[in-house]
Design brief:
Blueprint (H helix, E strand, L loop, with lengths): L1 E6 L12 H8 L4 E6 L12 E2 L9 E2 L1 H14 L8 E10 L2 H7 L4 E6 L7 H7 L2 E4 L9 H12 L10 H5 L17 E2 L2 E2 L9 H19 L11 H11 L6
Parallel strand pairs: 1-2, 1-6, 5-6, 5-7
Antiparallel strand pairs: 3-4, 8-9
Helix pairs in contact: 2-4, 7-8
């Protein structure tokens, strides 16, 4: 996958993209990230990328000229592939979810525009952005951190990026539920023991326990997810017992 990121602050990406999974994915040729400094597409001696809003008001607005040129250059670098998403990171975008990460992971290339200040000139937004995404109902300084989060979420879904591709399948939200608790050695620590079922060798029992723990954690922490989760009859029966207080802690 090829990703181009348009930003006013390219140095912000040095750490996150040069460590851990994202670093390995790039070294293995599974992911390619191209950073474009929007100021490089300005034509005045001060490299002005923003200006005051028409009609007055607080803050600054990203100018359209460098954005048009930067997007054109980014798409060209990506091979001018048809239907390449151009995504604006903005608090006004659709809320980012695991389903959207899955959706984006199907594209061979995409462009991110990191919004800033009071946003970008509406003419540029309407002409350039094919999508807009928010990572939550709060305001950040700019779109750099959201773009890092989305790249991370999408990259781990690409075949070969994780050591075990099934890890992404079992993640929280991947199945519509939160992931249940996990344990590792030692089997006993500070008087607390790993649940016996995990040491039983009974794989069917382990699978059933994990599913029930996932249901329990979702019910306790994010009950709203249960409304759209794909639940079996056994899942629903377990939840009814849980609600009735008939399930042991």
């Amino acid at each position: 996958m090829d990703i181009a990121i348009l930003t006013l602050f390219p140095d912000m990406f040095t750490g996150p993209f040069s460590e851990s999974m994202l670093k390995r994915a790039q070294e293995r040729g599974l992911l390619s990230i191209h950073l474009h400094n929007i100021r490089d597409y300005t034509h005045d001696k001060h490299h002005t990328a923003d200006d005051t809003p028409f009609g007055g008001g607080q803050g600054m607005v990203m100018k359209p000229e460098p954005l048009f040129e930067a997007v054109k250059a980014a798409l060209s670098d990506l091979g001018d592939r048809p239907n390449t998403p151009v995504i604006l990171l903005t608090p006004q975008g659709r809320p980012f979810t695991q389903a959207i990460a899955q959706e984006l992971s199907q594209h061979p290339a995409m462009v991110f525009i990191c919004g800033h200040y009071e946003g970008m000139d509406a003419r540029a937004e309407e002409a350039l952005a094919t999508d807009s995404i928010s990572i939550g109902d709060y305001v950040l300084t700019g779109g750099e951190i959201p773009s890092m989060a989305i790249v991370d979420a999408v990259a781990r879904l690409l075949p070969g990026v994780l050591g075990d591709d099934m890890s992404a399948v079992d993640d929280s939200f991947a199945t519509g539920l939160l992931e249940g608790p996990t344990y590792t050695r030692p089997a006993e620590y500070r008087g607390e023991s790993v649940p016996d079922v995990l040491l039983s060798g009974d794989h069917a029992a382990v699978d059933r326990w994990r599913r029930e723990q996932s249901l329990r954690r979702t019910y306790e922490r994010r009950p709203d997810l249960l409304e759209s989760a794909n639940l079996t009859a056994a899942d629903r029966a377990y939840l009814e017992k849980l609600k009735a207080g008939e399930v042991e802690e």
